[in-house]
Amino acid sequence: MRQLTVRGFDDELSRRIRRTASRDGTSLNKAALKLLRRGAGLSAPEAGADRVGSSLDHLIGAWSSRHAGEVDAALERFETVDEELW
């Protein structure tokens, strides 16, 4: 991975990077990279992602036992290995 030195961060940008790092629970470097990629119109790199996002957090604890049973039943067929493919 390449390194790049960037100078001249003003107070507002420094605060934004620190706030992003704190919110995401990441390093200042990762926060700066995230903001740089966003500003450049690039998506986040998929390889090497070390963090699960929070987009599904609203579902935590939201399923009833019935819903969980339905999901388990729907996924049950994926538990069987198709021996013909191996």
In short:
With 86 residues, the protein is mainly alpha-helical. The chain has three helices and no strands.
Structure description:
The protein has 86 residues and is mainly α. Helices cover 43% and strands 0% of the residues. The chain has helices at residues 11-24, 28-39, 65-75. The longest helix is centred in the first third of the chain and has 14 residues, at 11-24.
User: N-to-C SSE series?
Assistant: HHH
| Biggest pleated sheet | none
Q: What overall form do the CA principal axes indicate? A: elongated
Query: Quick check: average pLDDT?
Result: 83
**Tally of DSSP helical segments:** 3
Query: Can you count the beta strands?
Result: 0
Proportion of residues in extended strands = under 5%
Class inferred from helices and paired strands: mainly alpha
Task: Report the radius of gyration as a whole number of Å.
Answer: 21 Å
Give the arrangement of secondary structure elements:
Blueprint: H1 11-24, H2 28-39, H3 65-75
Feature tags:
mainly alpha; 86 residues; 3 helices
